[in-house]
Amino acid sequence: MTPAQPPEVQYKPAHYKSAIKPVWCPGCGDHSVLLAFQRAMAELALPPEKIAVVSGIGCSSRIPAYTNTYGFHGVHGRSLALATGLKVARPDLTVIVASGDGDGFSIGGNHFLHACRRNIDLTYIVMDNRIYGMTKGQPSPTTELDWDTAIAPGGTGLSPFHPLVVALASGANFIARGFSGDIPGCARLIVEAVRTPGFSFVQVLSPCITFRPDQQQAWKDLVRNAPVPETDDPGRAARRLMTDDGFNLGVLYRGKRPPYATRSLANLPAAHLEEEFTA
Amino acid sequence: MNVESAAKSISIALTGSGGSGVMTAGQTLLDAARSCGFYGLMTRSSGPQIRGGEAAAMLRLATRQVESHADRFDVLLALDFENVQRFAAELPLDAGSLVIADPKAGEIPAAIAAYGARVARVEMNKLAKSVQGGRISMVALGILARLTGLPEEAIISAVSQTIGQRKPEAVAASEQAVRLGAVAAEGLPEAPRLELPAEKPAGRWSITGNEATGLGALKGGVRFVAGYPITPATEILEWMAPALQQCGGVLIQAEDELASINMVIGASHGGVPALTATAGPGLSLMIESIGLAVASETPIVVVDVMRTGPSTGIATKSEQTDLNIAVYGLHGDAPHVVVAPLGISDALATAQWSVALAEAIQVPVIVLSDQSIGQSRAIIDRPEDVAFVARRETAAAHPDSYRRYELTANGISPMALPGLPGGQFTADGLEHNAQGTPSSQAQDHIAQLDKRLRKVEGYDYGDFWAEIEGEGPLAVLTWGSSVQPVREAIATARAHGIAAKPIALRLIAPAQPERLAAALGGVKRLIVVEQSHSGQFWRYLRAHYDLGIPTVPMYRPGPLPIRPGEILEIILREARS
Amino acid sequence: MTGIPELPKIGSAAEFYAQALAIETEASERYTSLAEQMEVHNNPEAANIFRKMAGIESQHRETLRQRAGDMLVGGEAAHFSWTGPEGPETAEFEKVYYLMGPHQALQIAKINEERAAAWYEAIGEATQIAEIKAVAAEMARDEREHIAWVEQWLQQFPPPDEDWDEDLDPPVFSD
Predict the structure, then answer these.
(1) Closest CA–CA distance from residue A87 to any residue of chain C (Å)
(2) Homologous superfamily of C13-155
(3) Which end of chain A is more exposed for a tag (fewer CB within 10 A), N or C?
């Protein structure tokens, strides 16, 4: 968490957008997430050069190019590892990780578990559209089991992955869900996520207009603000998340786990270590 | 053919099983030798069991620095013969060698007996049991001390250092057992002895190749390491973890190699020199992301402690067969740097150099160490300091229209470190233009390919690229752990009046055709030595170098080490023709 | 989650101006964003509509600024969080489609203007403060005028064909 900028500089959302125009389809939820991100950063008054946006591969992972921050557009599924290295080496930066349901929960699944477990001070935004958009419409780990696709005719038959439950079980300290149709809501969640130390996971339901055009309206009708306030009790959170229908919005869990901290014992020059080898 | 090395040395092997303490005994013997002013080398072999398995400690004690084994062992002391045939091929003996065993151990196994060594029996078990808390390995050390001329006091002192920390009460018992062993050795046949050095110089190191690699990396400036345990590289991570804590750095044990390499890239993107260490299977996993570091021009160091391949292979044995994947493994045209240490003591400087190269060229540097370098312990002179240190070209403060991948003359473009206002950019594996914006345009791809190639090939690697000594019509070209046996063979050949010129490459990639041509000036015949089944190094040379003279490749795979004698045979044969 | 956002409680003229400025600013920025999306997707006709709308909204914002004068703190819009997802005049991101024609773009604009007009009218009615009543009424009149422009503009563009969203080419992937 970085202190706010002195009052002379007032950051606007526009400060966080680069000159590059997004190639996301018109109607894609990710446009909303980008705007929510910009507003959140302005609210937090973070200097753009002190933010790094790290991503993997997929439509959602295009986002770093559209932000006026430092960033890394890495390989498929490894954004959390990239971000972990960066944050541990540069704790002064605010590191935001952006991913999709395929990049984050399929190939990235293992790193997701361990990032939650390590509880490094990162904010992880997963734009979940329950499909592999970039590669033309394959089912993802969050796709409904009967969703028909070319690669899995009639549906996969597999129950979808519950990322929020997995995050809680693995040790994430902040768990939230947003909907791209509610930009101010998403912006608020991102602000809270960044402000909360430790690993903050925000799943944003972000419909894919090209491969799942009915999603937007369907989800708009289904989402609701969570009927209960956030909890800091993992047991209560576990019960709620296990029975959650996937459409409760808001901060669902905010724990008290201290974030990952490295233990530096001294700051000696390397030559000091030679003693060990000398008789 | 046996090599009488220019260095006076004796080779001793200790074998035993079931918790008899062979490894500790070997270490103790090495420590004792060191305290007497000897140089030495120790390698270890073991069965697959986690504990209680058969084990062998192989030592070479010498009056000059040695970093590889001789052609045969002078003494094999077997605490027992359980499953010892596993090591038979690694324990070459001859008629002049001496095998010492307990009568209770039974018949010498056929594989060992086949060598035709002399055999002597000592009732080590009985002697050990005669002392309360006595151990057979301590009796063995006493025997070896008397046999080789090492003072018992040195052994006892070394024992109390090793065991004394954990169990002070065991020290007295060990001392007794050592003395009993020494007495029992009186009746044994003659074995070679080393002359005790007149001086015991201070400041020598006892170090493994893995430790030297870690220390070199730290001296080069590495302050972030992420890694995943894998034999035989794990010791690098375990040594660096506390070391980094002392130097203001950090090590993360990642969940797998895919995470390791990406964490390293992330840290480096933040401006901190970063490294990971792995072995062949791990390097295979990391390949995709090493390509990411090439494309995004992020400096990283990847140490590969090579083991016998392919696939899971033989984790505890050495080979030089990751050269192909290190040089050619990345998809696309992805120029990068590959270096290899020449031995245990050289591992420090080479690791330090690799950090400097990575940071200067903004590129991945793969360091090809191997199990025989990494896990062998040697007594060496303190390596000379080298001036290599991380120095990354960073963007100036307040850049005006900063372009991360500017097409500079030498191909190296200054990097803005996160935190610098105005320097924001997104590093990317996607092809990009000079700005860093993803681009699929032909001219951008060609311009960036040229840039990334230019910076690697155009860099001045200096004299450190290879060690070339002497002159002669005959040269032996090699790399990595093959260097030391080559040097020994050449030293012996010289004693026979044959001059051969060793050319040991540290820089594997990019190829240096002009420099090698200069090194081969006046050479009429070339021998190429490497430890691989397919001749990876030999084929790499043929692909990238115009050797131009008759060349004899000598390549054979692990798991057995290449011995100086094998090389000497070829040198003598080639010298005659 | 749909329809007109709840009316916020506005306690002063300054608050109203700030709120109204935020509405117009967000509307304008959104139209610009949508215009860029259309340009990237090679739909200049729809882009053109959105660009013009962006201009209209930003002009409206300037008018408002001048009316507000010193009322605006530092001349900039104060930050408000809406009780509903977005401002009443803002075109939602999900309403657009890469193949949409000018007619459809204008339909969106018309809905936005109608919502804005309704909002200003509702504010004017709900408030007791005379100045707010007056300015809200002015803003509502402006919005009604915009509706008329849009309706006239719509005359120039026929409604889309039945197969307006047919694209013979399948989606391509690029990563």
Answers:
(1) 26
(2) Ferritin, core subunit, four-helix bundle (1.20.1260.10)
(3) N
Q: What is the pLDDT of residues A207-258, one digit of tens each?
A: 999 988 888 889 999 999 999 999 999 999 999 999 999 999 999 999 999 9
3-state secondary structure of C48: helix
Q: What is the pTM of this model?
A: 0.90
- Distance of alpha carbon B51 from the chain centroid: 25
Smallest Cβ distance to A26: which of C38, C170, C173? C38
- Number of compact structural domains in chain A: 1
Q: CA distances (Å), B499 to each of A29, A38, B65, in order?
A: 74, 72, 21
Q: By C-alpha distance, which of A177, A161, A181 is closest to A254?
A: A177
Sign of CA dihedral C44, C47, C52, C58: negative
Q: Is A5 part of a structural domain of the chain?
A: no
The 3-state DSSP class for residue B10 equals strand
* Residue A1 falls inside a structural domain: no
Residues 255-274 of A with CB under 8 A from B: 262-274
| A127–chain B nearest CA distance, Å | 20
Q: SS3 of B550, please?
A: coil
Distance CA B498, CA A251 (A): 80
Distance CA A231, CA A185 (A): 18
Beta strands in B382-531 (DSSP E): 426-428, 466-468, 474-479, 501-505, 507-509, 525-530
Q: Cβ(A31)–Cβ(A24) under 8 Å?
A: yes
Residue in B248, B426, B427 nearest the CB of A267: B248
Assembly ipTM: 0.88
Amino acid at C102: P
Q: Residue A86 sits in a domain of what CATH number?
A: 3.40.50.970
- Which chains reach chain B with 3 or more Cβ–Cβ distances below 8 angstroms? A
Residue C169 DSSP one-character state: S
Q: What is the per-residue DSSP string for B86-152? A: GGGGGS---TT-EEEE-GGG-SPPHHHHTT--EEEE--HHHHHHTSTT--HHHHHHHHHHHHHT--H
| Token pair in block for residue C157 | 């563009």
In a domain, A262, yes or no: yes
Nearest chain C alpha carbon to A29: C94
Q: Could you say which architecture CATH assigns to the domain B206-380?
A: 3-Layer(aba) Sandwich (3.40)
Average pLDDT over residues B461-480: 96
Sorted by where each begins, the domain ranges of chain B are: 9-187, 206-380, 393-459, 462-576
Phi/psi of residue B118, nearest 5 degrees = -75, 150
Burial label for A265, CB within 10 Å (0-12, 13-18, 19+), is exposed
Question: Within 10 A of A24 (CB to CB), how many other CB atoms are there?
Answer: 26
Torsion over CA of A136, C160, C143 and C120, rounded to 10 degrees? -50
C-alpha distance from A35 to closest chain C C-alpha (Å):
10
In this structure, whether the domain defined by B462-576 belongs to CATH 3.40.50.920 is answered with yes
Arithmetic mean of pLDDT over chain B: 94
The whole-angstrom separation of Cα B362 and Cα B456 is 9
For chain C, the structural domain boundaries read 13-155
The reported pLDDT for the residue numbered A1 is 45
* pLDDT, tens digit, 9 for 90 and up, residues B63-78: 999 999 999 999 999 9
* CATH architecture label of B9-187: 3-Layer(aba) Sandwich (3.40)
Domain assignment of residue A232, given as a range: 20-277
Within a domain: A9 = no
Q: Which residue, chain included where needed, has tokens 């840290």?
A: B267
Q: How far is CA B543 from the centre of its chain?
A: 26
Burial A153-187 (b: 16+ CB within 10 A, else e): eeebeeebbbbbbbbbbbbbbbbbbbbbbbbbbbb
Is A135 in contact with C171 (Cβ distance < 8 A)? no
